[in-house]
């Protein structure tokens, strides 16, 4: 896998628990075109410091996955929105803690991109659901949809101060959940359904994903082709541990 050297160009606190980081690299001119939900991997050394290009060795670096919030090939910029979290009594995430203190000029390698499954081709309305880790992908989808699209987007944020203006469509109603006052699955179950067939896109913490899967499959009987559902992280597990749990879970479901 080729690693791409980048430099932090700008950092902005988007909300209490969300930091926007814009990276610069000459290599972005050749970056593949990507659709909503596509992602890159940020690379770190095993001591948690960002991997710089001159430090690349045969050791596999630590990788953390982030959605491409924006790619500007002309200005050689790629933007990420990184949720800032802390895990009580456990280690703070490598990527999240670095993001909270990052300053322009710092270097970090990335790898990618990877693409995520998009919305179903045929639908009458859309339903989005996710926590702060899914917000960049949901915003990208909302920006890419035709202006007459209707539906709902349910967004679960860490604090009241994380509710912000996002790219939205007149016909897509936003519903905010704050500090886990309600699970995504419970909030979705109460929504009024527009007429016709939905296209659903949802991503969240692992246990929230499993609850939504029960809702989609066992209660709503949504055909698999009409929904994308993924867990983006798991409570108490690092990204590498989560990946293992996710594979096991998928094997059981299959
Ligand atoms: C396809 C994909 C796209 C993603 N896009 C984004 C994105 O655009 N923005 C974004 O912020 N995240 C995104 N994520 C989620 C992100 O990769 C994980 O949250 C990742 O674990 C963060 O790494 P870390 O080094 O901060 O924490 P880790 O070292 O992986 O974990 C350390 C501890 O922090 C906890 N933790 C991890 N994530 C969270 C969280 N969000 N909230 C609370 N506790 C957490 C873990 O449970 C663990 O106990 C995406 C994930 C996937 C699979």
Structural topology:
Blueprint: E1 4-15, E2 18-24, E3 39-44, E4 62-67, E5 70-72, E6 77-83, H1 94-101, E7 107-114, E8 125-131, H2 135-144, E9 151-157, E10 172-178, H3 184-189, E11 198-205, H4 206-219, E12 227-233, H5 239-253
Parallel strand pairs: 8-9, 8-11, 9-10, 11-12
Antiparallel strand pairs: 1-2, 1-7, 2-6, 3-4, 3-7, 5-6
The protein binds flavin-adenine dinucleotide.
The site of flavin-adenine dinucleotide (FAD) has 27 residues, from strand 4, strand 6, helix 1 and strand 12.
Biggest pleated sheet: 7 strands, antiparallel
Q: How confident is the prediction overall: mean pLDDT? A: 93
Radius of gyration: 18 Å
CATH superfamily of the largest domain: Nucleotide-binding domain of ferredoxin-NADP reductase (FNR) module
């Amino acid at each position: 896998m080729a690693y791409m050297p980048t430099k932090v160009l700008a950092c902005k606190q988007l909300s209490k628990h969300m930091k926007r980081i814009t990276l610069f690299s000459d290599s972005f001119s050749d970056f593949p075109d990507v659709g909503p939900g596509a992602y890159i991997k940020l690379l770190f050394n095993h001591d948690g410091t960002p991997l710089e290009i001159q430090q690349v060795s045969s050791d596999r670096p630590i990788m953390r996955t982030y959605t491409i919030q924006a790619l500007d090939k002309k200005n050689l910029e790629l933007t990420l929105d990184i949720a800032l979290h802390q895990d009580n009594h456990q280690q703070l995430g490598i990527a999240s803690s670095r993001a909270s203190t990052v300053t322009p000029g710092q270097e970090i390698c990335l790898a990618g991109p990877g693409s995520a499954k998009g919305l179903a081709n045929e639908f009458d309305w859309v339903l989005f659901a996710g926590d702060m880790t899914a917000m960049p992908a949901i915003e990208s989808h909302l920006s890419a949809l035709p202006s007459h699209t209707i539906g709902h987007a349910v967004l679960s944020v860490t604090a009241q101060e994380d509710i912000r203006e996002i790219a939205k469509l007149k016909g897509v109603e936003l519903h905010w959940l704050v500090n886990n006052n309600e699970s995504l699955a419970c909030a979705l179950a109460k929504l009024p359904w527009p007429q016709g067939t939905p296209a659903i896109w949802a991503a969240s913490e692992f246990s929230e994903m499993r609850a939504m899967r029960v809702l989609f499959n066992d209660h709503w009987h949504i055909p698999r082709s009409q929904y994308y559902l993924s867990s983006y992280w798991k409570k108490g597990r690092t990204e590498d541990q989560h990946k293992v749990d996710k594979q096991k879970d998928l094997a059981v479901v299959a």
